[in-house]
Amino acid sequence: MRMIQLLGFHKESPDLELSPAEAEQRRRIFWTAFLLDTTSSIKAKQHPALELDNIQVHLPDENLLRGVRDLNSTHAVDNIKIFKLRVQLAIIESRVHRHLLNRTYDRVQGMSTINEISQLRDELTAWRDAVPPAVRPEYHLHPNPASLSSSVTALHLAYYDCVGMIRAAAELYNSEEIRISNIAQHLPSPAMDRLGFFTDNCARAARATLAMTPCLETLPLVEIW
Questions:
Q1: In CA terms, which of 4, 8, 18, 79 is 20 to 30 Å from 26?
Q2: DSSP letter string, the chain
């Protein structure tokens, strides 16, 4: 990631006079590095090498690379670009991860941070709803291992992991320093409902993750929650 930054891949470069396809390949190199950095940072509980605020690159554009399929895609998902979906999810993961790392600061912020976490939960739900049904993560529908490619399986597990991360971020306020009961009177009812929803969704995500273990034979260990 340091080399990516030194080469300027984290910014759009109109001065390079690249063709649209070349510019898209350049973006995909950056976003691939971003995915690796985000995943390793989350697993190691460390800050990422590059903060989201410093990224000035467009999201991957499926239309600029016609004929280029995602690795390990099956016939059912030939026309669905998993890579962009994974990048969008990683951006949400990175923002949730930042709350988990900045515990002291977030506790001082109190209600403002709870609202931000609730917003991230809403964004994650919106992301899931926008995923095409053929590859959408579901809590109650457990796929046949033979029906999923490794890239789709990794996408599902990353989603379930993000649900757990949001639950962990919300749980920070059920501590000795700040208990949710102490600030409940300052929160609107919908916000409290969402905090309770975190727990329910986390349990469902855990069960869905366990149900997908038959799909993990060829999946890199870093993706296993």
A1: 79
A2: -HHHHHTTTTB--GGG---HHHHHHHHHHHHHHHHHHHHHHHHHT---SS-GGG-B-PPP-GGGGTT-PPTT--GGGTTS-HHHHHHHHHHHHHHHHHHHH-HHHHHHHTHHHHHHHHHHHHHHHHHHHHS-GGG---SS-PPPGGG--HHHHHHHHHHHHHHHHHHHHHHTTSSSSS-HHHHGGGS-HHHHHHHHHHHHHHHHHHHHHHHTGGG-TTS-GGG--
